[in-house]
# Entry
Amino acid sequence: MVDPERDERVSANYRALGREEPSAALDAAILAAARRRRLRWGVPVSIAAVLVLAAGVTLRMQQEQPDPELALPAPQAMEERRTAPPARVIAPRAAADAVAPASAPAAGAVLQSRAKLETGAKQTEEALAPEAWLERIAAMRKAGRLKEADESYAAFKRQYPDYRIPEAMLGKVAPAR
Amino acid sequence: MLAYRQGDVRAFETLYGRHKGPLYRFVLRSVRERGQAEELYQEIWMRVIEARGRYTVQAKFSTWLYAIAHHRLVDHWRRRGLQLVDLEGADTAAHRAYEPEPRAAGREDLQRLAAALAALPELQRETFLLHEEGGMTLAEIAAATGSTGDAVKSRLRYALARLRKAMDDG
# Structure
Protein backbone atom coordinates (compact mmCIF):
# COMPACT_ATOMS: atom_id res chain seq x y z
CA MET A 1 0.00 0.00 0.00
CA VAL A 2 1.31 3.39 -0.98
CA ASP A 3 1.63 5.86 1.87
CA PRO A 4 -0.31 8.96 0.68
CA GLU A 5 1.87 11.15 2.89
CA ARG A 6 5.17 9.89 1.51
CA ASP A 7 7.15 11.85 -1.05
CA GLU A 8 9.67 9.46 -2.59
CA ARG A 9 11.90 12.23 -3.89
CA VAL A 10 12.11 13.86 -0.46
CA SER A 11 12.70 10.46 1.14
CA ALA A 12 15.49 9.54 -1.26
CA ASN A 13 17.22 12.88 -0.75
CA TYR A 14 16.73 12.70 2.99
CA ARG A 15 18.43 9.27 3.08
CA ALA A 16 21.27 10.70 1.01
CA LEU A 17 22.04 13.14 3.82
CA GLY A 18 23.74 10.33 5.66
CA ARG A 19 23.09 7.32 7.85
CA GLU A 20 24.81 8.39 11.04
CA GLU A 21 25.07 5.85 13.85
CA PRO A 22 25.93 6.24 17.53
CA SER A 23 29.56 5.68 18.41
CA ALA A 24 30.74 2.29 19.67
CA ALA A 25 31.47 3.88 23.05
CA LEU A 26 27.88 5.13 23.30
CA ASP A 27 26.55 1.69 22.36
CA ALA A 28 28.76 0.05 24.99
CA ALA A 29 27.70 2.49 27.73
CA ILE A 30 24.00 1.88 27.09
CA LEU A 31 24.31 -1.91 26.83
CA ALA A 32 26.38 -1.97 30.02
CA ALA A 33 23.67 0.04 31.78
CA ALA A 34 21.05 -2.46 30.61
CA ARG A 35 23.12 -5.32 32.01
CA ARG A 36 23.71 -3.54 35.32
CA ARG A 37 20.00 -2.90 35.84
CA ARG A 38 19.25 -6.57 35.29
CA LEU A 39 22.05 -7.61 37.67
CA ARG A 40 20.74 -5.35 40.42
CA TRP A 41 18.35 -8.17 41.28
CA GLY A 42 20.45 -11.04 40.01
CA VAL A 43 23.53 -10.43 42.18
CA PRO A 44 21.95 -10.59 45.66
CA VAL A 45 20.14 -13.78 44.70
CA SER A 46 23.35 -15.48 43.57
CA ILE A 47 25.21 -14.30 46.67
CA ALA A 48 22.43 -15.74 48.82
CA ALA A 49 22.66 -19.02 46.90
CA VAL A 50 26.41 -19.24 47.54
CA LEU A 51 25.91 -18.48 51.24
CA VAL A 52 23.29 -21.21 51.54
CA LEU A 53 25.57 -23.68 49.80
CA ALA A 54 28.50 -22.70 52.03
CA ALA A 55 26.37 -23.02 55.16
CA GLY A 56 25.21 -26.45 54.02
CA VAL A 57 28.76 -27.63 53.41
CA THR A 58 29.90 -26.29 56.81
CA LEU A 59 27.02 -28.06 58.53
CA ARG A 60 27.91 -31.27 56.74
CA MET A 61 31.51 -30.97 57.82
CA GLN A 62 30.46 -30.50 61.42
CA GLN A 63 28.24 -33.55 61.26
CA GLU A 64 30.98 -35.61 59.69
CA GLN A 65 30.22 -39.29 59.35
CA PRO A 66 32.85 -42.02 58.92
CA ASP A 67 31.47 -42.58 55.44
CA PRO A 68 31.38 -39.02 54.08
CA GLU A 69 30.44 -39.85 50.50
CA LEU A 70 27.01 -41.10 51.54
CA ALA A 71 26.05 -37.78 53.12
CA LEU A 72 27.21 -35.37 50.40
CA PRO A 73 24.63 -33.25 48.58
CA ALA A 74 26.62 -32.77 45.39
CA PRO A 75 29.99 -33.50 43.77
CA GLN A 76 30.66 -29.76 43.86
CA ALA A 77 30.46 -29.85 47.67
CA MET A 78 32.81 -32.82 47.71
CA GLU A 79 35.35 -30.76 45.83
CA GLU A 80 35.09 -27.99 48.42
CA ARG A 81 35.61 -30.48 51.19
CA ARG A 82 38.72 -31.85 49.59
CA THR A 83 40.22 -28.42 49.24
CA ALA A 84 39.02 -27.16 52.63
CA PRO A 85 41.56 -26.49 55.41
CA PRO A 86 42.20 -29.69 57.41
CA ALA A 87 40.28 -28.64 60.50
CA ARG A 88 38.95 -32.14 60.40
CA VAL A 89 40.45 -35.05 58.58
CA ILE A 90 38.23 -35.98 55.68
CA ALA A 91 38.39 -39.68 55.09
CA PRO A 92 37.41 -41.07 51.71
CA ARG A 93 35.95 -44.54 51.97
CA ALA A 94 39.14 -46.26 50.88
CA ALA A 95 41.01 -44.67 53.77
CA ALA A 96 38.29 -45.15 56.38
CA ASP A 97 40.60 -47.30 58.52
CA ALA A 98 42.71 -44.25 59.24
CA VAL A 99 39.85 -42.55 61.15
CA ALA A 100 40.59 -42.57 64.89
CA PRO A 101 37.82 -44.45 66.75
CA ALA A 102 37.63 -41.78 69.44
CA SER A 103 36.53 -39.17 66.93
CA ALA A 104 33.87 -41.38 65.43
CA PRO A 105 30.93 -41.74 67.80
CA ALA A 106 28.48 -42.99 65.18
CA ALA A 107 27.23 -46.56 65.27
CA GLY A 108 29.19 -47.57 62.22
CA ALA A 109 32.37 -46.29 63.75
CA VAL A 110 31.74 -48.16 67.00
CA LEU A 111 31.35 -51.44 65.13
CA GLN A 112 34.41 -50.63 63.14
CA SER A 113 36.49 -49.84 66.21
CA ARG A 114 35.34 -53.02 67.96
CA ALA A 115 36.38 -55.06 64.97
CA LYS A 116 39.69 -53.30 65.05
CA LEU A 117 40.11 -54.02 68.77
CA GLU A 118 39.38 -57.66 68.20
CA THR A 119 41.86 -57.83 65.40
CA GLY A 120 44.36 -56.10 67.61
CA ALA A 121 43.66 -58.58 70.46
CA LYS A 122 44.33 -61.53 68.20
CA GLN A 123 47.54 -59.99 67.02
CA THR A 124 48.52 -59.39 70.66
CA GLU A 125 47.78 -63.02 71.60
CA GLU A 126 49.86 -64.31 68.80
CA ALA A 127 52.75 -62.24 70.11
CA LEU A 128 52.45 -63.77 73.58
CA ALA A 129 54.52 -66.62 74.92
CA PRO A 130 52.48 -69.89 74.96
CA GLU A 131 52.24 -69.91 78.75
CA ALA A 132 50.97 -66.35 78.95
CA TRP A 133 48.44 -67.01 76.17
CA LEU A 134 47.12 -70.02 78.07
CA GLU A 135 46.81 -67.96 81.23
CA ARG A 136 44.78 -65.45 79.30
CA ILE A 137 42.45 -68.12 77.92
CA ALA A 138 41.99 -69.47 81.44
CA ALA A 139 41.07 -65.98 82.66
CA MET A 140 38.48 -65.64 79.86
CA ARG A 141 36.91 -68.92 80.73
CA LYS A 142 36.87 -68.10 84.42
CA ALA A 143 35.15 -64.81 83.59
CA GLY A 144 32.48 -66.70 81.63
CA ARG A 145 33.64 -65.49 78.24
CA LEU A 146 33.40 -69.01 76.96
CA LYS A 147 32.98 -68.37 73.26
CA GLU A 148 35.89 -66.00 73.24
CA ALA A 149 37.95 -68.52 75.20
CA ASP A 150 37.06 -71.31 72.74
CA GLU A 151 38.11 -69.20 69.78
CA SER A 152 41.32 -68.16 71.45
CA TYR A 153 42.10 -71.76 72.37
CA ALA A 154 41.52 -72.84 68.76
CA ALA A 155 43.86 -70.11 67.61
CA PHE A 156 46.43 -71.25 70.15
CA LYS A 157 46.21 -74.81 68.85
CA ARG A 158 46.65 -73.59 65.27
CA GLN A 159 49.73 -71.60 66.19
CA TYR A 160 51.23 -74.21 68.56
CA PRO A 161 49.88 -77.54 67.31
CA ASP A 162 52.71 -79.49 69.02
CA TYR A 163 52.72 -77.67 72.34
CA ARG A 164 51.94 -79.98 75.24
CA ILE A 165 49.63 -78.19 77.58
CA PRO A 166 50.19 -79.27 81.22
CA GLU A 167 47.24 -81.27 82.63
CA ALA A 168 46.48 -78.69 85.31
CA MET A 169 46.29 -75.95 82.69
CA LEU A 170 44.40 -78.05 80.15
CA GLY A 171 41.41 -78.27 82.46
CA LYS A 172 41.31 -74.48 82.71
CA VAL A 173 41.63 -73.67 78.99
CA ALA A 174 40.21 -76.51 76.89
CA PRO A 175 36.53 -76.29 75.80
CA ALA A 176 34.20 -78.37 77.91
CA ARG A 177 33.40 -81.77 76.41
CA MET B 1 10.94 -5.66 25.60
CA LEU B 2 8.87 -8.05 27.69
CA ALA B 3 11.74 -10.54 27.54
CA TYR B 4 14.16 -7.89 28.79
CA ARG B 5 11.71 -7.06 31.55
CA GLN B 6 12.00 -10.70 32.59
CA GLY B 7 15.78 -10.29 32.76
CA ASP B 8 16.83 -11.31 29.22
CA VAL B 9 19.65 -8.89 28.34
CA ARG B 10 20.05 -10.34 24.86
CA ALA B 11 16.47 -9.29 24.10
CA PHE B 12 17.47 -5.73 24.92
CA GLU B 13 20.56 -6.00 22.72
CA THR B 14 18.36 -7.10 19.82
CA LEU B 15 15.96 -4.20 20.33
CA TYR B 16 18.83 -1.78 20.69
CA GLY B 17 20.47 -3.00 17.49
CA ARG B 18 17.21 -2.58 15.59
CA HIS B 19 16.38 0.94 16.76
CA LYS B 20 19.69 2.60 17.50
CA GLY B 21 20.36 4.07 14.03
CA PRO B 22 16.90 5.58 13.41
CA LEU B 23 16.62 6.92 16.95
CA TYR B 24 20.11 8.38 16.84
CA ARG B 25 19.42 10.19 13.56
CA PHE B 26 16.03 11.33 14.84
CA VAL B 27 17.72 12.96 17.84
CA LEU B 28 20.73 14.25 15.89
CA ARG B 29 18.55 16.00 13.31
CA SER B 30 16.25 17.33 15.96
CA VAL B 31 18.95 19.13 17.94
CA ARG B 32 21.62 19.42 15.21
CA GLU B 33 24.58 19.38 17.58
CA ARG B 34 26.36 16.09 17.96
CA GLY B 35 27.47 16.35 21.59
CA GLN B 36 24.02 17.36 22.72
CA ALA B 37 22.44 14.68 20.54
CA GLU B 38 24.60 11.98 22.10
CA GLU B 39 23.70 13.14 25.57
CA LEU B 40 19.98 13.11 24.78
CA TYR B 41 20.22 9.79 22.96
CA GLN B 42 21.85 8.18 25.99
CA GLU B 43 19.27 9.70 28.34
CA ILE B 44 16.43 8.31 26.23
CA TRP B 45 17.82 4.77 26.43
CA MET B 46 18.40 5.13 30.16
CA ARG B 47 14.76 6.05 30.55
CA VAL B 48 13.79 3.01 28.48
CA ILE B 49 15.86 0.82 30.81
CA GLU B 50 14.47 2.42 33.96
CA ALA B 51 10.90 2.30 32.70
CA ARG B 52 11.02 -1.31 31.43
CA GLY B 53 8.62 -2.39 34.17
CA ARG B 54 5.95 -0.08 32.80
CA TYR B 55 6.10 -1.38 29.23
CA THR B 56 2.99 -3.27 28.18
CA VAL B 57 2.20 -5.26 25.06
CA GLN B 58 -0.57 -2.82 24.17
CA ALA B 59 2.07 -0.43 22.81
CA LYS B 60 4.29 -1.23 19.87
CA PHE B 61 7.86 -0.92 21.12
CA SER B 62 8.81 1.75 18.56
CA THR B 63 5.80 3.86 19.57
CA TRP B 64 6.77 3.55 23.22
CA LEU B 65 10.42 4.32 22.45
CA TYR B 66 9.62 7.43 20.43
CA ALA B 67 7.11 8.59 23.02
CA ILE B 68 9.96 8.60 25.54
CA ALA B 69 12.18 10.37 23.00
CA HIS B 70 9.45 12.93 22.32
CA HIS B 71 9.08 13.77 26.01
CA ARG B 72 12.82 14.09 26.39
CA LEU B 73 13.07 16.41 23.40
CA VAL B 74 10.15 18.53 24.59
CA ASP B 75 11.99 18.98 27.92
CA HIS B 76 15.11 19.91 26.00
CA TRP B 77 13.38 22.49 23.83
CA ARG B 78 11.58 24.00 26.79
CA ARG B 79 14.82 24.41 28.68
CA ARG B 80 16.15 26.27 25.71
CA GLY B 81 13.15 28.58 25.73
CA LEU B 82 11.72 27.39 22.45
CA GLN B 83 7.98 27.52 21.96
CA LEU B 84 6.34 24.35 20.74
CA VAL B 85 3.62 25.68 18.50
CA ASP B 86 2.73 24.89 14.94
CA LEU B 87 4.07 28.01 13.32
CA GLU B 88 3.13 28.00 9.71
CA GLY B 89 4.94 31.25 9.11
CA ALA B 90 7.79 30.57 11.54
CA ASP B 91 10.83 32.75 11.35
CA THR B 92 13.31 30.23 10.00
CA ALA B 93 16.22 32.62 10.28
CA ALA B 94 16.30 31.88 14.02
CA HIS B 95 17.39 28.29 13.37
CA ARG B 96 20.97 27.35 12.79
CA ALA B 97 21.83 25.76 9.50
CA TYR B 98 22.08 21.99 9.48
CA GLU B 99 25.58 20.66 8.87
CA PRO B 100 25.33 17.98 6.24
CA GLU B 101 27.45 14.84 6.18
CA PRO B 102 30.58 15.05 3.97
CA ARG B 103 28.97 12.78 1.35
CA ALA B 104 26.20 15.33 0.89
CA ALA B 105 28.51 18.31 0.84
CA GLY B 106 29.01 18.28 -2.94
CA ARG B 107 25.32 18.35 -3.74
CA GLU B 108 23.56 21.66 -3.52
CA ASP B 109 20.09 20.16 -3.43
CA LEU B 110 21.04 18.06 -0.41
CA GLN B 111 22.52 21.05 1.34
CA ARG B 112 19.32 22.98 0.72
CA LEU B 113 17.30 20.03 2.00
CA ALA B 114 19.45 19.87 5.15
CA ALA B 115 19.06 23.57 5.75
CA ALA B 116 15.30 23.41 5.20
CA LEU B 117 14.98 20.46 7.59
CA ALA B 118 16.92 22.33 10.24
CA ALA B 119 14.71 25.39 9.68
CA LEU B 120 11.41 23.53 10.16
CA PRO B 121 9.42 24.27 13.31
CA GLU B 122 10.17 21.59 15.92
CA LEU B 123 6.86 19.75 15.74
CA GLN B 124 6.86 19.62 11.95
CA ARG B 125 10.43 18.37 11.88
CA GLU B 126 9.69 15.82 14.58
CA THR B 127 6.70 14.52 12.62
CA PHE B 128 8.71 14.26 9.43
CA LEU B 129 11.56 12.45 11.23
CA LEU B 130 9.26 10.02 13.02
CA HIS B 131 7.64 9.21 9.69
CA GLU B 132 10.90 8.95 7.80
CA GLU B 133 13.36 7.52 10.35
CA GLY B 134 10.99 5.79 12.74
CA GLY B 135 8.92 4.32 9.89
CA MET B 136 5.81 5.21 11.85
CA THR B 137 2.28 5.65 10.57
CA LEU B 138 0.36 8.85 11.26
CA ALA B 139 -1.63 7.05 13.97
CA GLU B 140 1.56 5.85 15.67
CA ILE B 141 3.06 9.32 15.52
CA ALA B 142 -0.12 10.72 17.06
CA ALA B 143 0.09 8.13 19.88
CA ALA B 144 3.78 8.79 20.52
CA THR B 145 3.46 12.57 20.60
CA GLY B 146 0.08 12.84 22.27
CA SER B 147 -1.39 14.62 19.27
CA THR B 148 -4.47 14.14 17.16
CA GLY B 149 -4.26 12.36 13.83
CA ASP B 150 -5.32 15.53 12.02
CA ALA B 151 -2.62 17.61 13.66
CA VAL B 152 0.02 15.04 12.70
CA LYS B 153 -1.25 14.88 9.13
CA SER B 154 -1.17 18.64 8.86
CA ARG B 155 2.38 18.90 10.26
CA LEU B 156 3.67 16.27 7.90
CA ARG B 157 2.10 17.97 4.87
CA TYR B 158 3.59 21.32 5.75
CA ALA B 159 6.99 19.74 6.38
CA LEU B 160 7.01 17.90 3.05
CA ALA B 161 5.90 21.03 1.17
CA ARG B 162 8.80 23.03 2.62
CA LEU B 163 11.36 20.35 1.94
CA ARG B 164 10.18 19.93 -1.67
CA LYS B 165 10.30 23.64 -2.19
CA ALA B 166 13.86 23.82 -0.81
CA MET B 167 15.02 21.11 -3.23
CA ASP B 168 13.32 22.79 -6.19
CA ASP B 169 14.56 26.27 -5.47
CA GLY B 170 17.97 25.59 -6.96
About this structure: The radius of gyration of chain A is 39 Å.
